[in-house]
Amino acid sequence: MDPFLRKRLTFLSFFWDKIWPVAAPDDGVPGFPDPAASAEPEPPATEPCSPPVPMQLFQALYDFRARCSAELSVSRGDRLYGLKEEGDYIFARRLSGPPSTGLVPITHLAKATPETLSDHPWYFSGISRAGAQQLLLSPANAPGTFLIRPSESSHGDYSLSVRAQAKVRHYRISTAADGLYLQKGRLFPNLEELLAYYKANWKLIRNPLLQPCVPQKLPQQDEWERPRSEFALRRKLGEGYFGEVWEGLWLGSTPVAVKVIKSAYMKLADLSKEIQTLKSLKHERLIRLHAVCSEGQPVYIVTELMRKGNLQAFLGSPEGRALGPPLLLSFACQVAEGMSYLEDRRIVHRDLAARNVLVGDDLACKVADFGLARLLKDDIYSPSSGSKIPVKWTAPEAANYRIYSQKSDVWSFGVLLYEVFTYGQCPYEGLSNHETLQQVTRGYRLPRPASCPAEVYTLMLECWKGSPEERPAFTTLQKKLSAAHRRLAPAHT
Predict the structure, then answer these.
(1) pTM of the model
(2) Mean pLDDT over the full length of the chain
(3) Which residue in the list 26, 78, 157, 351 is annotated as catalytic?
(4) What sign results for the dihedral spanned by CA atoms 473, 271, 295, 265?
(5) Which residue ranges are tagged as binding site for ATP?
(6) Using alpha carbons only, how large is the chain's radius of gyration in Å?
(7) Which residue has the higher pLDDT, 389 or 473?
(8) Is 56-114 CATH 2.40.50.100?
(9) Which residues form the SH3 domain (predicted)?
(10) Are 336 and 320 in contact (CB under 8 A)?
(11) Which pLDDT belongs to residue 270?
(12) 351: annotated active-site residue
């Protein structure tokens, strides 16, 4: 009935708008026939998009009179959006006066900045969707407060954000060749006129536009915290206790590794504290943190990308299997160096294993995932959960009683040494987790791998002392492994 009457009795369009409003906010208020016309969708978390790149704004330096239908007449001071460059001309859309497009000589234009909009109290150029919500819901702003900002999810468009009682609604303002619109069919030459129309006809969007947002200083943003839209996930690299690891691009150009945290398994309330620890650590043998996305879900932890993947998989590859004992020992030295740094800062890894050491193109090794095991929920990371706890790498006191320390990390390092010298072989092969714990408690220790030097195996056994106090410190292990590497390397050259 609505489309029929609108089509046949167009002169009553104002009346139809009162009966059948056609705009809808992004929270899906029922009863609106055309929700797609105005809602600004939330950018998808799993498919991050690049940040918006606004069109170039120009200002006319001189009057120009069109000489043919393809050209656009402009007056000095007119503002225009440059849509496309065509030789010595700019195909532009005029913002002031009647909306129109056409070619204007480049010599008649000067680049202007979008900040001319900031003369208006309702325009906020450097604010995100989340920031707009936080600002509009602050005590200084009442229901009916609004602002316009650049759209995060659509290049060159804008968003109208309005406070409606205890929530904020966002409306997409789309940019077309001949104007701006919030609802299809209602074009405006600029934001000022669009806003004036919806102030007078606010029932079309079911939200009064009473006064511009009162600006206030938002809390200082953490320099590490970045929006998910800056990261594009390209290829899944693996999956572990903490989540999935993806190869991605940061801002479309910088290769990174993105760990997507499994919220169902993690104590997210403690995540911010753990991330603060990650930010404070900096060493060439630890994976470098680039950024975090901890506001909302899923949580991203973004680090440098190590192209050869984790050490366990690399050692099992044809390239890894071709390496001799000196290079294997160099891997052990590098890991011991990184763990010695964590030891100095009294940080317990809790899940040290070859799968959590990453390898770069230059065969540099870096320890990853330090401290994240602390965030696993108790029913996930406990002896009763069976396969979830990495029993074969875990010291007996940690597996049985959840007593973690630098010395339990030393036990795990001994198992990592076994992995290195067996080219990534699973320790205690053929035994279940329960059987492994039983055998280790009775005194069983892994045998010496064929390629492992005797002095290195002696260090493994020291790492596996039943009493934690008898196990060596990582600084001691680093010195002894470095000395062994110096002795071994000349003999194999």
Answers:
(1) 0.56
(2) 81
(3) 351
(4) positive
(5) 259
(6) 31
(7) 473
(8) no
(9) 53-114
(10) no
(11) 62
(12) yes
